[in-house]
Every structure is written in C-alpha cells, then in structure tokens.
Amino acid sequence: MEGHVTYSVLPAVIVLLPFVASLLVRPLGRRSESLRDWYAVVVTALTFLGTVALIPAIAEYHVIGCEIPLLVGEITFSVDSFGMFFALFTSFVWFASTLYAGSYMQHEQKRNRYFTYTLAVLGANMGVVLAGDLISLYLFFEALGLLAYWLVVHTETPEALKASTKYLWMTVMGGFSLVAGIFIVFGLGSNGSLGSVPIAEGQTALAWAAATLMILGFGVKAGIVPVHIWLPDAHPVAPSPASALLSGIMIKAGAYGIFRVVTALFRPPIMEEVVEELWHFTTQLGFAVIWIGIATMFIGVVLALLQENAKRMLAYHSVSQMGFIITGIGVAGYLGAHGAMGYAGALYHILNHALFKACLFLGVGAVYFRTHELNMYKLGGLWKKMPLTFLFTLIAAFGITGVPLFNGFVSKTLIHHGLVEAVEHAAHLAHTTHLASWAQQATALSVAEKIFVVTCGGTAASFIKLIVFVFLGKPKQEFPGIKDAPPRMLVAMTALAVPITVLGLAPNFVLHGVVVPGLHMWGLHTAIIDEFVPFTSANLSSLVIPFILGPTIVVVGVRYGLFHAHFPAWFSVDYWYRRTARAFLAFCSVANRGYEAYVAFVSRLLARTFRQAARGSIRIRRTWRRFIVTLGTGAPGLRHQQFIDTAYVIIERERHGTVRHAVDAAIAAAETSGDTEAHEIERNAHAVRDLAMYMATRLSDERIAVVAELARTGRIEPLRMALEESMARVVELRPLVADVALRLAPRRMAGQSITRELAHEMNVIMARERFDLLLRESIPSWKVSQATARLGHRVGQTLPREEVALAYEAGSQAAAQLGHRIGQVLPNEEVMSAYRAGGLTRLENAARWIANTATGLIEAAIQERVPWMIEDRVDSRRVASTRLAIQRYVRDIGLNVGIAILMLLFFVLATVARGF
Amino acid sequence: MLLPIFGAGLVVPLSRVSERARAIGLTLVVALAAGLVALLIPGVLRGEIYGVRLFQMTPTISLSMRVDALGAMFAITAVVLWLLAVVYSFGYMADEHSTNRYFTFLMLALAWTLGVALAGNLLSFLVFYELFSILTYPLVVHEETPEAMAAGTKYITYIIIGGGLVLLAIMATYSMAGAQEFGSTAFFNADLSRTALLAVFWCFIVGFGVKAALIPLHGWVPDAHPAAPAPFSAVLSGIMVAAGSFGILRVLFNVFGIPLLKELGVAVPLSAIAAVTVIVAAILAIPQDNLKRRLAFSTISQMGYVIFGASLLSVSSMTGSFVHIANHAFMKGTLFFCAGVFIKRAGVHKVSEMAGIAKRHPITMAVFTLTSLSMIGTPPLSGFTSKWYLGLGVLDAGKPLYLVVLLGGALLAAVYLLPIIYAAYFKEPSPVVRDLLAKGSTAEAPWTMLGPLLAGTALTVVLGICASASGLPLSLAKLAAETLP
Do B394 and A183 touch (CB under 8 A)? Predict the structure, then answer.
C-alpha cells in the first residue's frame, strides 16, 4: 500500500487482546457471573479505545502497520483510514452488544461459552479489517467464520442446529472459494499485499476467475444473492446480541472484503495521472457487482415482506441492505477514478447499517426478552409498556428507511447519486464512442436505478409493518407484568441510537474525516464529495416515490393477505443447493457401492483364477502320475474304462465274499454235524471253495459284462448309483451259492461228475438274479424319465427337477452307506469328468495290452496258489493292496527288464560299431 | 545413528522383567533417537550433508547412509511420530496379548524407517524399504482376527508385488547408470534410450505407488488400517504410506531429475493419477461408516497431494508436497490416536455410533476437531501451510485448473470429517454412547494415551502457526525443494 507507512504494534495488540482475553472468560465465569459480564464489557471497551487511539497516527501518517513472523511467512497488519473506519464501528457496536448481552443472556444457557466466543470473534473481526495482506486477511476471515459458528449454534435448538449446519457449510465453501481466488491472485504475480494486482496481457480470464471467486468467498459472509441462503436462518436463531453482531457487523467483514477486492486489488496501480484505459477491468467488474447488489437488495426486500418472525424479517433486511452497500461498491468500481460517490455511499451505508441494524435487533431482542414472542402478528400495543424500547426501535427504523435527518437518508442518497452518475457516465460514453455496449449498459443501469427506488419503497413498507404490528395497535394477547428493558440494555440501545441521529444531521464528519483522505491516498478525484449537500430539494423529492410506495404496499398487502403468500419450494435457491448436496452424497454412496462391487468382483475373479490354477496343478500332477503308471502298468483306458475298472474291483470283491461265505458255511456245517477230523473238514472246505469259486466267477463275469455294456451305452452317474444300490441286493445271492456248493461238494469229493447239476444250478441262480434287469430297474433316471414323460405330457414341457434331485439324493445316500461298508467308492461324475476323455494313443494301447496280459497271467498264476486258509479272512483292503503290490512288482520287473534290454542293445551296438 | 534403534529391538525381551521397565526403556531409546536426528538438523540447514558408508558388498555395490534435507525431514517426522506412538501404545496395548512381539516389531520398524529416510543410494534404500515393508506384517495382523489375517494377506501380497517391481527397476537403473549415490546430480541423463527410461520410470512408480496408495494400487490401505491396532494405524498412515511417497520423491528428483522428467513428459500423467487419487479417495471416504476406514481413505487422498505437488515440478508445489508428508503424519497420527481412544475407552468403531460422544470424551473430541480442521486446511493450522504452498505451486506450474483438485479435495475432506464432529457434539447420543453415559463415568483415556494425543495436536498447531521458524519441517522442505537436482 502506498503512502507513508509507520510502524506501530497497536493494531496487533488490538487484534490479540480479545483473543487472549477470551481465554479468561471461563475461569472468571465460574467464580462470578456478573464479574465475567463486566470483564467482557471492559475488554470490548478497551478494544474500542485502542482503535480510537489509532486515529491520530492515521491522521498523521495515513498508514500504520506491523508484522509478526508467523504462519507461512508473517502476519502483517496495516491500517489505512478505511481499515480504521471499519475497526471503529466494529469495536463500538461490539461494546454496545456486549453491554446488552450482560442482561439479555440471563435467560440463556452456557453463558461462559457465549462470552468466550464473543470476544474471540471480536478479535477475528478486528483482524479482518486491520489485516495488511491477503494471507492474514484470509486467516482472520476464516477464523471469524468458524468461531461465529458457536454464536449461531448457541441455543442448540433444532432450528439453531439446522441453521448453523447450513451456515457452517456455506462458510467452509466460501472459505475455499476465497482461498482459490487468493491463489490465483498470487499466480497473477501479486506479492499478497492489499494493493493493485498486475494483470498481464491474456490473463484477463484468470483475473475474472480470481475476482469472481473472491467476491463469492466474501459474499457468503456478506449475504449476497445467490449465496445468502444461510443468513435468514442463522441470524434469527442466535441470541439477540449475537444477531445484532452477525447482522450489524460480521456481514460487514464480507462487505469489507468485497470493497478491497473491487477497489484495491482489481484497480490499476496508483499514479499521479489517471489513465482511463487501465480502469477497463475495474469498470466491467464494477458493472457486475452493481447487478449483484441490485439483485440482492430486491430479492432481500421481497422476501422480508413475507416474514412473520420479526428477527427473520430483520435478517432479510440485512440481505437487502447489503445489496445497497454492494451496489455502492459496484458504482465505485464502475466509475473508476471518478467513483468517489460510490465509495462514500458504500462506506457510509456500512457504518449506518451497522448502527441501525444492531439497534433494531437489540430492540426486537428486548421485546423477546420480555414477551418470548417473535411473531409480529401476535404482538401489538407495546409502546405503552416499553416506551424507551419503542423510541429506539423507531429511530433505527427511521434510519433504515431513510427518513431525512436520520443517517440512512444520507447514505442512500449518496448511493443513489452514484447510480445516477453511473447512468450518465455510460450514456456519455455511449454518446462519444458510439459503442452499443455502453448504450446497453446505460439502459441497464437506469433499470437498476428504478429497482433501487422500488426497493426503498419496500423497505419503508416493511418497517411500517414492524412498528405498527409490534408496538402500535391493540395488543393481540396479554403479556402480564411487562415493563421496559433492563437498564444495561437501554444504555446499549441509546449508545447506538444517538449516532444514528448525529450521523444523519452531520454527515460531513465522516465524509471529510475518513473518505476524502482515504481517496486522496488512492489518487482519486474527491471534488464531487466536497460539492455534496444532503438536504437539497432534489434529494428530498427523490424520497417521494418510496414514501408513497411504502404505505401503499402495506395497505395492499394487508388487504389481500399478500404478506402470508409463500413461494413454491423450488423457487428458492436453497432448495436447489439442498438437492445438489443430497445428490452428491447419494453419488458418493453409489460410488462406494460400485467400488465395493468392483472389489468383490476382482477378488472373486482372483479366487477363481487361484482355484483354476490349483485345479490345473492337480491335473498336471495327475497326468504325471498317469504317465508313470502307464509306463509301469499300462494305460488307464477310456473314461468309462476307468469306471469299469473300479466296478470290477467291487464285483471282484463280491466274488471273494461269495466264496468265503460258502467256505464259512461249509466249516459251520461240519462243526454242527460233529465231524471232528481236521483233514476231512479241510478237504470238504477245499471242495466247497472250488465249486463256489466257479459259480462266483461265472456270476462276476456276467455282472462285469453287464456293467461294461451299460457303462458304454449310458450315463455314468445314474449307473454308478444303480450299481451301488444293486450290490447291496446281490449280496442276497451268497447263501444260494453256498447252499449249492455245500450240496454238490460231497459228490465232487467222491469223484463224480457234477457238471450238469452245476450248470443247471448256475442257470437257476442267474435267472433269479438277472443282473442286467436289476441294474436297469434301479437306475433312477430311467425310472424317472418315464414318470417325467407322463408328467410332461400332462403339464406341458415342465421337467420335475425336484423329483430327479430326490431320486439322486436317495441313490447317493445308499451309495454312501455302501461305500462306507466296502471301503471303496465308485468314482462319481465329477471325478469321472476329470479323467481324460480322449482315446488312447497307439503306444498307450500297446503298453496297456502288454500290461493287462502280464497282469492277467500273473493274477491267474497267483490265484491258483493262494491257499484259502480258514483263519485268513482277507479283507477288501488287503485285496486291493495286494493287487497294487502286484502291479508295482510287474512295473519294477518290467523296468528292470527294459533297462537290461536297453543296455544289452547299447552293448551290442557298441560292439558292432567297434567291429566296423 | 541406527545403533540405538537396533538396541531397541533388544530392549524388549530384556525388560520382560517388568512392564514399567520396558515402558521407560523404550521411551528413552526413541527419545534418544529423536534427539540424535534433531542434532543433525542445524547442520543440514546450513547445507552440510552427512554420509557414511556402511559396508562394501562388491567393488561397485555398497550400502551407505546419507543425510540431506528431504531425508532429515522424513526422519525427524518419523522418529517424533514414533515417540508419540510408542508412548500411546503403552496405554493402548495395556490389556492386549503378545505385547512383546508388538513392541519388538514396532521398534524394528522405526529402525527400517530411519534407514529408508537416510539411505544413501538406491540399493540401501531398497534393503531398508523391503525390510520395513515385510517386517511390519506382524503389526498389521496383530489382532489375529480373521479380518486382520485377511488384511495382512492382502497387505503382504500387494507389498511384495510392489517390492518386486522396485527391485526390477533398481536393477535396471544399476545396469543403465551404474552405482551412484544420491547427490546433487541425477542418475540418468538424456542420452539413454527413451523407451528404457520410460519403462524404468513406470516400474518405479507402480512399485512405490503400491505403498503410496496411488489409486488403482491402493487396495490394501482401507483394509489394513481398521484391522491394525490404533497406534500402529497412526504410524501406518503417517509414515508407512508416506514411505512409498518418499520413494517416489527420491525417484523423481534423485534418480531422474527435473530436466529429464520434463523432457520425458511423464510428470503430467503422474499428476493426473495423483489428482484422481485425491478426488476419488475422498469421494469414497464419505460413505464409510467405520471410522478408521474413513480415515484410511483420507490417507490415500492426502498422500495423493504429496505426489500431486511433487509431480507439478515447481519449487512451491514441491515444498508443499514435502512439508505435507510431515504435516499429514502428525495430523493423521493424532486422528488415529483419537479413533483408538474411542475404540478402547468407549468401544465405538463406527461413525454412526459416535453421536454425542463429546460429552464423554471432551478432550479427545476437541483434539479431533482441531486436527480435522487442520486436515481441511484451515489457517493457522499445519494443513493450511501445505495447502498454501501446493496452491501457489499449482499456479507457478501454470495449471490453475488444478486448483479445483486441490480445493475440491479439501472440501471433500470437510464433507467426510465435519459431520463426525457435528454428530459428536450436537446429535442425540447413539445407543452405545447413551449406555456409556448412563454408567456415569466420564472416563477419559489414561495420560499415556492423552499425552501423545495432545502432543500431536500441539505439533499440528505449532507447525501451522510457527511454520516458517527455522528447523521445523517447512524450512527443511524449502531447502530440499531448492537444492534437489
């Protein structure tokens, strides 16, 4: 910042004092409530006095500043006349509000917390207006926003919680918008001071982005449309002294920010000569800001007219009044070097609004303090009971509506002048440059001027409503025992009401004391302010329209019930924000669900891959084993061959079982008949065994043939179950065989031929068994398929899968039992399908043939020699293991023989080779 | 320098004598290590570089240690966070099983971390990095629940695959550029084949990216964090994930160097990946109900900032990126400490159960609030410092649109952190909390847990307010950003 800068720690002290002081509130409050209240008042008073002490220094040096090396660089404070101006009224209104709060807060909870945060927020607010660079400004602005959350949420009622949440989100987003703007300002090449930002060629878009983001960021706090939505919710729910601060002061922090953005950051560097071309960007920005202001003031006042809750109405008026201020700032930017009127109007209105809005909130707060009622339509006639409160509220209402002799008149007139001047400026340029854009701007601004006047009328209407419904008229309900507000509250209101009238009567005090020196320092023309006289007939006559419009609106509104009209929900921006937020959260949870699904999918994919890899490795191992086995024992055969092989083992076992049964029966018979000669018994047993073996072998051959045939023609799985089921019934044939063997054995021992009898008996037994029929009968699918055919015929094409499943179920249960008994389970479909499906290679066939032949030979040779000892109960496992041992033996022998032959071959070859 | 830490590994079995002896012994050892690292800092700030060759494996391959600004910053961050975590562990692990195993591996992990931070060449980096990655498995699965075991398996699978890629890349580097120490010049120069350089680069990035949780490779993070004990979650988030980012920084600046990166044009896709990481992880964090899982996603997002800043290649953004490692470590460490208090003292694991918990744990919740604000980037807390430099860096790099990523990530951080705070302070107590409140006791955590919590917060505040003080991470980060090749 230009000008004479002198060093002073005073600004830093002013900012830090409330912060440090806030830490002491809680310990003091524990000891004594009133001590704490007075302590807070003293702190705010000291802050105010400190600010007053800045005046001489500013008057002499224009700018004072200091640095504290903190944060990413240093925190700097620098105060010019504008900063001091803001600091003065901030600390003054704070003082009044804190004084008022001492009485008012008696009916609220958590008073320690309230005073702690009041002081802390004061510190932050002073920091905002005294900050000397963008980082410090952002720091204090953010602190202000977050600390003020505790003031908004203070009552912790459901409405307060809702409003404060909205407030918090808007603040957070505003903060981000602001910091983004600040980043871009740094990116444009600023050093972070509150001075002009250099805008290089081609960076205009970036500058627009920065300005927009920063105005939005500050605008959230200032309550500009369309980011005002938190304000009408948050301001009324706070305790009244806090409402006064929020509406009167804290939104000015936002206005201060916008003021600095438009008039300090995005303006050309300060020079002796004014070069109009450099102001182009500021002009355009100012035009945009004027329209933001106009929209804000108009929408604010329309919504204010529809409110029942007095505080809520005041909050909407804060929005509307901020619109006046923003318009003033916009005019200042638009007119560039000639914008003194805009500066003066905006600054003056900032001060005025702080005073009268705070006073209004305190007045309405006093009413609420006594009556606990905020609905305007339920109050009335209070002027008799609370005369002083009525007086101060009336003064403030005069102020805000712009009645001459009160402060609002002066500032509104200034802004109006500025707006008119802007219209003339645009029209003049349109005339001289013949550019259509200027002409359009002139038209647009004259529309803006009309809206301005209408809004003034709306404001008047609104406050006529407030005064009439709350203080005048007949009481709608009785409030017994009401008296005027407590003295401390009255003193606080007096402190605010007096300046309202003083500033209305003597405006030059501020204009020449603050605005003119500040503008001089910035190298702007100030002559226009010197020429300004508030109470001219032209200015007064411009009031005629608003003051006619105001009562008209009230009368019409009350007559037709317009004040109770409600816009549909989708009409408010708030509704759309809410929907967006909700949609975003929904999107997040959808994204998360999508992500979870993706993770699940990937892990399933991985699991399947792992399983397949595992299966693959099993397959490789099995192939390897089969290869080894093939080498030794011959090929395993086709798929059904595998099955037949296994079935063979089972049927073979049944053969052994039958033989053993017969032998057992023979021995038992010998024992019962009293034969004691061991030799005889053994001979008899041998004979029985021979016979039984012959018969059992024939039966087995028959069975295996049936199984083999069925296996080749039918499906494996039903066959497996059928076989397992049938084997249980086949066992019934054992006694039959034993019977025949026992009957024929004596004749065989006697040397007679029994061939015919044997053949006959065999035919009888086999006819009885009919293994093929037995199997076919117990194959479930064949049975079921008949039933299915019938059923399907009846119902259409439906296949009773449950029935099939049940049949399978029954079959597999039987199989499981049998398998348990035999110790060998037939391979089921899954196992079978794992076997190789293709045919055999020629080599494998040869190997198989050799191996099978050899096995058969050896088996036959060994079987003959196995002595069927009576005690030797060969169990099924041993049969299997014996068979395996034989196979191994054959393999080993085969390998040995093979190796021997190979070696021999080599030997022969070697000899032959040497021979040649 | 590493000796006291190796000693720490021995302390654990020895002080089986008494819990108290172990507690005091371990704290002293870590404090000693912290002191030693801190002693190095003034020298580093003067621009001196300490180095020592540990041993020569072959004439060309050796293990060596070296202290430069970046390494010193990472080392001091790690050792201080470890100090907090160890003290916190005494409170947290008091009634847990196999504490000796836990402490042994915790101390060993510190040793490896310091090794990573102070490694002097790629090989020693790799050695410590792998030790660090693999030997922390027992800490991840410490709870030995099925979830913990599953998370551990996931962790080790990811890490080993990542480690394999890093090994591959390092072998390629040695064959292409020979054995070199980290120093003022980059390993590679532009004469080498472009394809080979690109392959090596992406190998490195994917390898370290697994650890740094770049987004398609982040799978282990959200599972490992909720499964591990809270103090280790803190370390896992604050340091382990950052170790991956640290690896990427070493690769970017020491192996390749800024001119080569610019020539190869790889920084742009890398920054895009990092930007996606920042935003997507934050979006995924929002619907998480498990508190630690939400914080884990937040870690992924925040680590995205580190890579993001580094890949923009401007001095400010690099400073922001480096200092964010330190700031994030303390912020996230403290948040996990808070989560640990809620789990241990209140049995609350889920965000939805946290409603009203501020009444029972006022101090913890205050700490949580402050740290969360820092995470969002509120001045004057430390998160603001990093975000500030990142923001300036984005504009220095001439990519103003990336501001959307930077601030969008921060805004999303607000969306996933602020509702927790709101619920804890203002919502009706959840059934769990109501039961606890009905029992009467306000039962804040013991001082061994609260102490580190408060210290972590104090660090967050100090690193924000006094960020520019000499000797704090910001000064080291600035130095590192200015001196890197």
Answer: yes
Q: Is residue A64 part of a domain?
A: yes
pLDDT tens-digit readout, A39-66 = 888 888 988 888 888 887 777 766 777 7
Task: Evaluate if residue A835 carries a pLDDT over 60.
Answer: no
Q: Average pLDDT, whole number, for chain A?
A: 78
Q: Tell me the chain B residues in contact with residue A603 when contact means C-beta distances shorter than 8 Å.
A: none
Domain match, A615 and A724 both:
no
pLDDT at B432 (0 to 100): 80
Specify if A813 maps to a domain: yes
Task: Please report residues of B whose CB lies closer than 8 A to that of A213.
Answer: none
CA quadruple A276, A280, A285, A289: dihedral sign: positive
Instruction: Say if residue A800 is in the same domain as residue A729.
Output: yes
Category of A634 on φ-ψ map: left (φ > 0), alpha (ψ -120 to 50) or beta: left
**Domains in chain A, number:** 4
Cβ contacts (< 8 Å) between A168 and chain B: which residues?
Answer: 418, 422
Strand partners, A649: none
pTM: 0.74
B380: cis peptide before it, omega within 30°? yes
List, for chain B, all residue ranges whose pLDDT scores fall below the cut of 50. 4
Rounded mean pLDDT of A414-442?
84
CB contact under 8 A, A187 and B395: yes
Q: Cα(B227)–Cα(B143) distance, rounded to whole angstroms?
A: 7
A581 and A538 in one domain? no
* Distance between CA atoms of residues B93 and B229, nearest Å: 8
Judge if A103 and A202 occupy the same domain: yes
User: Residue B9's pLDDT is what?
Assistant: 55
Q: Do A598 and A561 reside in the same domain of the chain? A: no
Do residues A828 and A721 lie in contact, with contact meaning Cβ atoms separated by under 8 Å? no
Check B379 against A143: CB less than 8 A apart: yes
- In sequence order, the 6+-apart residues with CB closer than 8 A to the CB of A369 are A103, A104, A107, A240, A485, A489
Answer yes or no: do A423 and A461 share one domain: yes
Q: Residue B135: which domain range?
A: 3-483
Query: In whole angstroms, what is the distance from residue B126 CA to residue A141 CA?
Result: 47
Is residue A645 one of the residues assigned to a domain?
no
Q: Which residues of A touch B414 (CB under 8 A)?
A: 169, 172
Handedness of CA A356, A358, A359, A365 (dihedral sign): positive
Q: Tell me the H-state helices in A223-339.
A: 231-237, 240-245, 251-260, 280-305, 310-335
Six-digit token string for B384? 């603001």
Question: Among B381, B384, B462, which would you mutate to test the A interface (most chain A Cβ atoms within 10 Å of its Cβ)?
Answer: B384
Same domain flag for A590 and A547: no
Residue A642 lies in a domain: no
Question: How many interchain CB pairs under 8 A, A with B?
Answer: 96
pLDDT at B301: 92
Give the range of the structural domain holding residue A572, as residue numbers without chain letter: 568-633
Q: So what's the pLDDT on residue A873? A: 46
Among residues A798, A817, A839, which one ends one of the domains?
A: A839
Q: 3-state DSSP call for residue A373?
A: coil
- Residue with structure tokens 């604000």? B373
Cα A319 → chain centroid: 33
What ipTM did this prediction achieve? 0.84
**Residue-wise pLDDT tens digits, A121-180:** 998 998 888 888 888 888 889 889 888 888 888 888 888 888 888 888 888 889 989 988
Among candidates A142, A143, A592 on the partner chain, residue whose Cβ is nearest the Cβ of B284: A592
CA distance B227 to A543: 72
What does the pLDDT look like over B280-294, one tens digit per residue?
A: 999 988 888 889 999
pLDDT of residue A2: 42
Q: Which residues contact A82 (CB under 8 A, 6 or more apart)?
A: A259, A347, A514, A518
Strands A75-79 and B50-56 turn out to be: unpaired
Same domain flag for A375 and A258 = yes
Structure tokens at A245: 């601060």
Q: What is the count of structural domains for chain B?
A: 1
